[in-house]
Amino acid sequence: MTDRQKYYEYEPAQGGKWWLKTPPPREQWFEDALIDLAGLHDGRKPRLRVVWGGTEKSDIAERPQLKYKAVREICTGYIYMTKSGETKFTPSMNLPKDARVPWEFHPRKERIELGRLRWAIERYVSPEELRRLGRFERLHSADGEKILRDFPEEGVYEHYWWIQTARHKYRDLDNEVLVAVQAMWLYNTTTSEAQKTLDDIERRRNQTLIGAQEANSIWQSMK
User: In terms of pTM, does the model score above 0.85?
Assistant: First the structure.
């Protein structure tokens, strides 16, 4: 697994603020290639675009929120019993001076909404298409809360494909990914077919690499 694949996972074992991740740099060449492939709607909106799922904000929700959520549970500290019978909070597992011994403690957990640490290809949906599909006709939930924004006259972007490896790990934007997106857009290839093609390419590359390493080891042993 590459360093980036390890980094772009939410792993509490990483320690510290393991949920804070710096997004990978934008790949302007890839964004330009998507415009060359699918063009612009009305000369303004790219029909296909790539966004970072870890930070992308929803363009349909009423309240500001992440578009692609990955909910995780974190431990913010511990509730413990004092010698006098009170319950108190401590942010660490170090034994507080006033704790009852043996120390009885219970983790205090908090659910946080994180973004998915993957590149996502999105497809533009025009206001005309939204109206035809009957989108944004019901803006409120059953209890009356407004959950969708007013009709977006500028259109919205919807998910088209996640960029990831065969094992659902982070993957960089590269020419192979671009070829898969081109196949999906031009030839109506399904996302599963495109992913299988990418997986096969990755598998062959890994086999070639392993074969080269084995050949080098044999050559070294014959010297």
Answer: no
